[in-house]
UniProtKB/TrEMBL annotation:
InterPro entries: Vps52 (IPR007258), Vps52_C (IPR048361), Vps52_CC (IPR048319). Pfam families: Vps52_C, Vps52_CC. This is Vacuolar protein sorting-associated protein 52 homolog. The keyword Transport applies. It is found in: Golgi apparatus, trans-Golgi network.
């Protein structure tokens, strides 16, 4: 049917386009068909007009001819008008058939209509029900909001009541005095744990009552009397207990540190007194200060007196200085001097007193040392005394801070109230001892002991002794500088002519200096001090001048050089044992030794080989100036030198070696000098060979008698001593 309709439309269009007359004829039958009448929209078409474009008509005709049904109709030769009428007839038949189908289904359509109407009624009722539900939900929501507001208000009232209840509970708990507290305070001994627990509870309640009274709480008056009576009872018991402990310190032969440590377990007792009865707290503190101050003073005075009895009997005096000669005699009533003055300038094992193991070793026990007849230098006694002072002071300071609840300046003041008399007594004793002390090494060791103890006190966080350490150093440093300056002056004023017989061996004064300087340098290396190095520099200058003054007493330059080399070598060797290789003293004496050694080697080679040395220097000077022709006149001199060296060099070297070994006390140094002399001799003879290789002397017959350099080196190695 669709195809037929399409073909009918196409045919109708063709008819309309065929001409006006044909279109009028077709319009009647086509309009007769029901539902098919469509007015032809020609617009402003005017076929008589000049503007009508036939090309457009051709395009439309061509497009319609492309239709498949039109093509088929044209191929079969069907008349389009007849075919159009046939199509219209078919459409009418189809329409009639459709109407009959609708009439047959009218009952079903009516039933469907009724069903749709019923459904609309049901949906309308559902809509009404849902509307009612929505109205009910709105009312329920408002009720829920009302209930929520009521619940929030009730919750606020509940929290307020709970807060009030908590405050009232705290207030009541703070004011109520339980029977357990009363029983413990009145009946329990202070050493029982429950007394301490209830005392803390009493302290808390007393603080709470004071706070509530400040706020104007009337209920505090009901418990104030009970708390006051309990407080008085507790204060009485605590006072008796602490005073009893303090009085126990005074018993003879009592180790006060044991009850002092026991007091720390009851440090809350003093805190309670401090907060509730300050007068009693002050009484206890004053009693403690008075008791411990006397105990420490008595202990240290006794210990110091007994300690000084085990000091060495032989101590340095004002005449035991570096520049004092050993042959000096004293008056008839003078004290005997040290058996050997060198001992006060030698460190030996004394330096171990500042080693970490010895520094904090147990203190000396004087009566044990006396039974064993042991004696100690002053620095050992000083270390023992001050280590005991350091240990007890640190312990006392920490106890004061913890028990008496003080810190900062208050702790310093309380500490010095306890230890002040002891520290003053110790300073007076040290000042008195230093007034007659001339042992610089002992004083310097004491300085370094103090520096190390000060560091230990800082590590233990005990600053209370800082002022004492400064006072001790203020006594030690000036005395050390004074003794050092006295030694410098003694060396400066020493007259070599008063020293008796002289020889080329190291002098005892230079040995004293070497031992003394190495001792101070090795000690100073641990904690360097610039002032010490300056004083040692002054002493070194004076010693160098002294060595030169003594060397000037020898008649020959060779003896002077031997004396200088022996002394420089000895001082350098001693210094290198303790000081570092890069120290100023080592570097200075090394330069002096090298210079004098080189000069001695030249002096040593001059007698047997002086002519050879002079000729080589003169010839090299002529060659350098371009005057080598003048060597032709030296043939006889050269021949004499060649034959003289060849005949006597072995005996000369042997004599030289023996002379060196006799002159120097240090065989190693003597060996080094011999080796240097032989090396310089080989270099001299090699230079002599080069001079003789000049054209002016090359034809000299005596050149055949020259000793081969390598042969000479082999022979000289035989004369090198080995140790």
């Amino acid at each position: 049917m669709a195809a037929a309709a399409t073909m009918a439309a196409a045919a109708r269009e063709l008819v309309l386009r065929a001409g006006t007359s044909d279109m009028e004829e077709e319009e009647g039958p086509l309009a007769g068909g029901p539902g098919l009448q469509e007015p032809l929209q020609l617009g402003e078409l005017d076929i008589t007009s000049d503007e009508f474009i036939l090309d457009e008509v051709d395009v439309h005709i061509q497009a319609n001819l492309e239709d498949e049904l039109v093509k088929e109709a044209l191929k079969t030769g069907v008349d389009l008008r007849h075919y159009s009428k046939q199509v219209e007839l078919e459409l009418q038949q189809i329409e009639q058939k459709s109407i009959r189908d609708y009439i047959q289904e009218s009952e079903n359509i009516a039933s469907l209509h009724n069903q749709i109407t019923a459904c609309d009624a049901v949906l309308e009722r559902m809509e009404q029900m849902l509307g009612a539900f929505q109205s009910d939900l709105s009312s329920i929501s408002s009720e829920i909001r009302t209930l929520q507001e009521q619940s929030g208000a009730m919750n606020i009232r509940l929290r307020n009541r709970q807060a009030v209840r908590g405050k009232l509970g705290e207030l009541v708990d703070g004011l109520v005095v339980p029977s357990a507290l009363v029983t413990a305070i009145l009946e329990a001994p202070v050493t029982e744990p429950r007394f301490l627990e209830q005392l803390q509870e009493l302290d808390a309640k007393a603080a709470a009552v004071r706070e509530q009274e400040a706020r104007g709480t009337a209920a505090c008056a009901d418990v104030r009397g009970v708390l006051d009576r309990l407080r008085v009872k507790a204060v009485t018991k605590i006072r008796e207990f602490i005073l009893q402990k303090i009085y126990s310190f005074r018993k003879p032969m009592t180790n006060y540190q044991i009850p002092q440590t026991a007091l720390l377990k009851y440090r809350f007792f003093y805190q309670f007194l401090l907060g509730n009865e300050r007068a009693t707290a002050k009484e206890i503190r004053d009693e403690y200060v008075e008791t411990l101050s006397k105990i420490y003073l008595s202990y240290y005075r006794s210990y110091l007196g007994r300690l000084m009895k085990v000091q060495y009997e032989e101590v340095a005096e004002k005449d035991d200085l570096m520049g004092v000669e050993d042959t000096a005699k004293k008056g008839f009533f003078s004290k005997p001097s040290l058996r050997s003055r060198n001992t006060i300038f030698t460190l030996g094992t004394r330096g171990s007193v500042i080693s970490p193991t010895e520094l904090e070793a147990p203190i000396l026990v004087p009566h044990t040392a006396q039974r064993g007849e042991q004696r100690y230098p002053f620095e050992a006694l000083f270390r023992s005394q001050h280590y005991a002072l350091l240990d007890n002071s640190c312990r006392e300071y920490l106890f004061i801070c913890e028990f008496f609840v003080v810190s900062g300046p208050a702790a310093h003041d309380l500490f010095h109230a306890v230890m002040g008399r002891t520290l003053s007594m110790t300073l007076k004793h040290l000042d008195s001892y230093l007034a007659d002390c001339y042992d610089a090494i002992a004083v310097f060791l004491c300085i370094h002991i103090v520096l190390r103890f000060r560091n230990i006190a800082a590590k233990r966080d005990v600053p209370a002794l800082d002022r004492y350490w400064e006072q001790v150093l203020a006594l030690l440093w000036p005395r050390f500088e004074l003794i050092l300056e006295m030694n410098v002056q003694s060396v400066r004023s020493t007259d070599p002519q008063r020293l008796g017989g002289l020889d080329t061996r190291p002098h005892y004064i230079t040995r004293r200096y070497a031992e003394f300087s190495s001792a101070l340098v090795s000690i100073n290396q641990t904690i360097p001090n610039e002032r010490t190095m300056q004083l040692l520099g002054q002493l070194q200058v004076e010693v160098e001048n002294f060595v030169l003054r003594v060397a000037a007493e020898f008649s020959s330059r060779k003896e002077q050089l031997v004396f200088l080399i022996n002394n420089y070598d000895m001082m350098l060797g001693v210094l290198m044992e303790r000081a570092t290789d890069d120290s100023k003293e080592v570097e200075s004496f090394q330069q002096l030794l090298n210079a004098r050694t080189q000069e001695f080697i030249e002096e040593l080679l001059s007698p047997p080989f002086g002519g050879l040395v002079a000729f080589v220097k003169e010839a090299e000077a002529l060659i350098e100036r371009g005057q080598a022709e003048r060597l032709r006149g030296e043939e006889a001199r050269v021949t004499q030198l060649i034959r003289g060296f060849g005949s006597s060099w072995k005996s000369s070297v042997e004599s030289l070696s023996q002379d060196v070994m006799r002159s120097f006390t240090n065989f190693r140094n003597g060996t080094s000098i011999i080796q240097g002399a032989l090396t310089q001799l080989i270099q001299l003879y090699h230079r002599f060979h080069r001079v003789l290789s000049q054209p002016q002397l090359r034809a000299l017959p005596a050149r055949a008698e020259l000793i081969n350099i390598h042969h000479l080196m082999v022979e000289l190695k035989k004369h090198k001593p080995n140790f």
